[in-house]
Task: inverse folding
């Protein structure tokens, strides 16, 4: 990991930086904090640092003077300046010292993180640390020998591995120390372990607000099966969406929901909307225990597949478990919103809509400002105070493509640029352009571009 020094005479600024940045995810560690320039110089005399975040106005030696002194000592050091003063002269002077980022207080942590990523990229590019290929790319290729060689570099010198996935704000320590962890998406971590540590947790996940769920496979697996195992474990880790409580999950009984899904499919095919709403209410009252997060996803898309709610391609489709969880929060809310969707779209599907150029321009501004974030027909409709079916029709009429297709194209355009201009891991790129999980990103990229992200990066 690269070592970071933070210096600011305001302790609250130092502590907020320490607590608000995902240092480990960036490959960084906070090696030292200081409140004045003299303390910084004293520390760097005996210890090496790679990145310094410095306040301009500190007692004694100020931030700009420190930039000059630190640069003389280590020409590869990455410097980021923080200041409550916006005068151009400071920024101009900072640039002369090779500062890569100039942040005004109060600090924007997204901006700070962006500068830190640039610093890591610069350090690796300059040969400070050799880059290794993204582990997710290696796992996706499913080459047993290549995977074993990769994992052995992390101390996993064996032929079979235990696999788990956690969802939530914090990684369970007992899993992380059992092997290696791989970031799979926002709030998702995959674990490749020497031994089965999940069994030791028991019911410990219950009552842990930072752990939403843990999914795992009890058997040890060969390396070529790890990629698929992660996908299965993600579904198990998100089973709390249906069950309504944090849990450890080692299996999912998909067949139990079939009797409900058969009934849903028949009612959708016959356009029996009132009867369908009653069935959704019945599922909420006495059918929840029959559902998994996967069958909940199927239920949504059975409804959205009806021709009444789509043109050429269904804009309301839910493409991944992560999207399902982020869209609805929990199973009960999903059922409630589906009933509202039916009320809104069945009653509003008939008749002509009055499309206006001004309305379309407002919609495009909203999409272009938000396509990297959580965005859907529902959120766009709510933001613009419009009917979601109207939004779908308007977009298709004006552009010739669907709402989802356009957003996907925008995200993939950004992804292609990041793949060719940076060395960021696939997970970071996926999150940055708007995909919540790496698996969905890889599948979508391959579908639209014709090759995996790793292949595209190699060829370009």
Result:
């Amino acid at each position: 990991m690269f070592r970071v020094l933070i210096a600011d005479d305001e302790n609250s600024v130092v502590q907020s930086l320490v607590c608000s940045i995902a240092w480990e995810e960036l490959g960084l560690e906070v090696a030292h904090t200081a409140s004045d320039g003299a303390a910084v110089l004293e520390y760097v005399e005996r210890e090496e640092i790679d990145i310094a975040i410095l306040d301009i106005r500190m007692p004694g030696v100020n931030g700009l003077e420190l930039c000059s002194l630190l640069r003389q000592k280590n020409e590869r050091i990455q410097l980021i300046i923080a200041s409550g003063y916006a005068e151009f002269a400071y920024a101009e002077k900072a640039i002369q010292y090779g500062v890569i980022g100039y942040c005004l207080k109060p600090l924007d942590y997204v901006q700070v993180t962006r500068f830190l990523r640039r610093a890591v990229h610069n350090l690796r590019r300059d040969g400070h640390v050799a880059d290794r290929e993204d582990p997710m790319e290696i796992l996706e290729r499913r080459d047993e020998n290549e995977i074993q060689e990769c994992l052995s570099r992390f101390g996993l010198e064996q032929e079979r591995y235990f696999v788990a996935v956690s969802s939530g704000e914090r990684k369970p320590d007992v899993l992380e120390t059992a092997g290696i962890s791989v970031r799979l998406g926002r709030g998702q971590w995959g674990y490749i372990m020497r031994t089965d540590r999940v069994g030791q947790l028991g019911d410990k996940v219950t009552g842990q607000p930072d752990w939403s769920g843990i999914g795992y496979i009890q058997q040890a697996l060969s390396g070529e099966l790890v990629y698929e195992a992660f996908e299965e474990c993600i579904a198990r880790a998100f089973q709390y969406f249906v069950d309504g409580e944090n849990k450890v999950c080692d299996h999912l009984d998909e067949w139990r929901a079939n009797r409900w899904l058969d009934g849903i499919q028949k009612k959708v095919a016959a356009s029996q909307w009132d009867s369908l709403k009653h069935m959704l209410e019945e599922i909420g009252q006495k059918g929840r225990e029959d559902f998994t997060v996967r069958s909940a996803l199927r239920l949504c898309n059975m409804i959205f597949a009806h021709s009444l709610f789509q043109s050429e391609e269904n804009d309301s489709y839910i493409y991944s478990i992560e999207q399902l969880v982020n869209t609805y929060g929990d199973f009960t809310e999903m059922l409630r919103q589906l009933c509202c969707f039916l009320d809104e779209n069945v009653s509003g599907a008939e008749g002509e809509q009055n499309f206006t150029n001004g309305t379309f321009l407002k919609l495009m501004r909203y999409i272009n400002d938000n396509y990297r974030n959580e965005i859907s027909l529902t959120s766009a409709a709510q933001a613009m105070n419009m009917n979601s079916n109207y939004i779908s029709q308007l977009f298709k009429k004006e552009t010739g493509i669907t709402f989802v297709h356009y957003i996907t194209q925008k995200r993939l355009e950004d992804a292609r640029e990041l793949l060719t201009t940076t060395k960021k891991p696939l997970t970071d790129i996926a999150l940055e352009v708007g995909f919540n999980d790496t698996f969905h990103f890889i599948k979508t990229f391959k579908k639209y571009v014709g090759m995996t992200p790793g292949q595209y990066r190699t060829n370009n």
